[in-house]
UniProtKB/TrEMBL annotation:
Gene3D superfamilies: NAD(P)-binding Rossmann-like Domain. Keywords: Oxidoreductase. The keyword Oxidoreductase applies. The keyword Transferase does not apply. Belongs to the short-chain dehydrogenases/reductases (SDR) family. It holds the Pfam family adh_short. The lineage of its organism: Bacteria, Bacillati, Actinomycetota, Actinomycetes, Micromonosporales. This is SDR family NAD(P)-dependent oxidoreductase. It comes from Paractinoplanes aksuensis.
Amino acid sequence: MSGGRTALITGGTGGLGAATVAAFVADGWRVVAPVRPGRADGLPKGAVPVDGDMSNESDVTAAVAVAAGDSEAPLRAVVNLIGGFASGPLVGETPWSDFEAQLLTNLRPTYLVTAAALPHLVAAGGGSVVSVSSRTALSPFPGSAGYSTSKAAVIAFANSVAVDYRKQNVRSNTVVPSVIDTPANRVAMPDADFSRWVRPERIAPTILFLASDASAPTSGAQIPVYGRA
């Protein structure tokens, strides 16, 4: 896509988020990126920062209003990158509060941002929602119940959006990474073979493609971006 269109990208200061924001800016998009207060310096140049917590409905409403507020560049894409990982004990030893915390981290922002943005996408004549799940949603490992369930819920939610808004020309797809090669993951898994992981800048073009008119026939898909992991 070229200029004249806005993308709302959450999680823009993270490893995948920064690469994705940079890719959209380079492609000519107006990019609005909600950030925690004081974190705007972590965004790539060219993005429009908006302070806010995307788990807070009022902050979400304000961020979406900024994203949809330029009549020369209507909101045409929402990219949900906010999330976090936490492992724990086996299910029978995991408190509900710990399990629920992963739903709040990985599903709540995706739901709130998407739900708030959908009327604007419809009003603009259609658009694209791209959300990020995890390979763990499809292949859990011991101790991952909260994380894997929350990321599976992201897929189910994205598919529901695809079905609900098909007639309104709004598409919804999910990108499914394995381990992303970020500094934080290298610190967490120092003995891993980093060459098998996929770098953020290799995933960003897939997200950009799913947001673009080039992927117009595609909705309700889960796209694996595993690298060699």
